[in-house]
Write a structure and sequence with these properties.
Blueprint (H helix, E strand, L loop, with lengths): L11 E2 L6 E4 L5 E13 L3 E11 L1 H5 L4 E9 L4 E9 L2 E6 L2 E8 L2 E7 L5 E8 L6 E10 L3 E7 L5 E7 L6 E7 L6 E6 L8 E5 L5 E7 L5 E7 L7
Antiparallel strand pairs: 1-11, 2-3, 3-4, 3-10, 4-5, 5-6, 6-7, 7-8, 8-9, 9-10, 11-12, 11-18, 12-13, 13-14, 14-15, 15-16, 16-17, 17-18
Length: 234
Amino acid sequence: MRLPLILSLVSVVLVGACGDDSNDDDGTPTTSVEYAGVFGSAANAGRLAFGTEFANVRGAALRAPIDLTGTMDFINGTTVSLSGTLDGSALILTGGGYEFTGTAVGDVINGTFTGPDGETGSFSATLIPDGIAIVTMCGSFSGDDSGVFSLSLDPDRNGGVIVVPDDGGPGVTGVARPKSGTTDQVEVLPDALPSFVIATGTVSSGFNSIAGTWDDGQGSSGSFTGSVDACIPS
């Protein structure tokens, strides 16, 4: 039986910085790049964080691949260390029997992972702007189909989405963006159809909940709700 563990994710991710310039002991400028997000499968869920620190960002930006280190933090308290590379837009991370592969599009990296005992799942990670918090909202959708989702947003309403339907499976990923002409609405576009808006939601004034509707364009539709509180383990 599939357990909706994705509903038990940690609510707010505060990780490092992007473009956070500092200096090594020898005075060489360094720049750190950090991503934060979530992962979920039919068996497990939790936080994902990874990044790198390198000297001379301009030179590093021209060098491929970039080495990364990170962690998977499961909701049961287990932590798995990860390492890998970001080669252009291609991400690979491995550790503890898990392997993540994803593609960077803008500030979001979405993809899938495999784990021990044949586990398969999806993940979404968002580039952390300098000194900014990434807010994660968890919830459920209903209608012609049903399931759970996790949505990570930066203050500009950009981020990543994981959707796990009730019929099981690894889930699917997408990206979130602000709806043009609005100050509180978010559009969700699936990675499989990157130009198609499959859902639109309104974020509360406190930036701690969301509600809206979805329509897959093939005759199935419904509604969804989510909140920061729904991500906090009970």
